[in-house]
Specification:
This protein is an alpha+beta fold and 197 residues long. A four-stranded antiparallel sheet has the order 1-2-3-4, with no helix packed on it. The chain is elongated.
């Protein structure tokens, strides 16, 4: 087995693939190599800022495989676990929202938006599908990854980027005190606060 040095990886990559690298990708890869050297050899403080590493991973996925692929691969990785589905396939498959929550905390919505095809600019809502799966197991879901499609004041369809389901909703005011929500699922749950109407 032979290990290629970082300086030779680009040359090797271009030799074995038909993909073309532009100067932006070459600069990006060289920057990763330099950051790796700083981290491994103790020069600099790159390990103190994990968001740089996370963004680089997402950029690499996007450069070479396209938007959304990183999230699709996370879901496939989760589902490839030999124990996946023994408890409940539907419940376990929606647990990918935890990865989205982690990214939201570490790099923020604006950064996540760069690596997804779906536009995340709009108010976030609870997804009825994820909400009911979680509640059916005695847990409470407060993670919001569903968005109105289209993002208009009278839209009645809600798309969840976590479970990839689209749900019909009603646009009526929530009757829970201090909740300003007006997106209610067909079973009478406010998708802003999670309260039953």
């Amino acid at each position: 087995m032979y290990t290629y040095s970082g300086e030779n990886l680009l040359h090797t990559f271009c030799t074995v693939t038909n993909l073309k690298l532009n100067s932006e990708k070459i600069k990006f890869i060289e920057n990763i190599r330099q950051n790796r050297n700083r981290a491994i050899h103790g020069v600099g403080n790159i390990l103190n800022t994990p968001n740089i590493i996370i963004i680089d991973i997402l950029k690499a996925y996007t450069y070479f495989f396209g938007k959304d692929q990183w999230f699709n691969d996370i879901k496939k990785w989760n589902q490839s676990n030999p124990l996946f589905g023994y408890y409940d396939w539907d419940f376990e498959s929606i647990q990918s929202y935890k990865f989205l929550d982690f990214l939201e905390v570490t790099i923020g919505i604006k950064q996540i938006n760069k690596f997804l095809n779906f536009e995340l600019s709009g108010r976030k809502y609870l997804c009825p599908t994820c909400f009911y799966e979680t509640n059916s197991k005695g847990q409470q879901l407060m993670s919001k990854w569903a968005f109105l499609t289209p993002n208009k004041p009278f839209s009645t369809m809600l798309y969840c980027i976590n479970c990839n389901f689209e749900n019909e909703v009603e646009r009526i005011d929530c009757n829970i005190k201090n909740c300003m929500g007006n997106v209610i699922d067909m079973d009478g749950i406010c998708l802003t606060c999670g309260g039953k109407q």
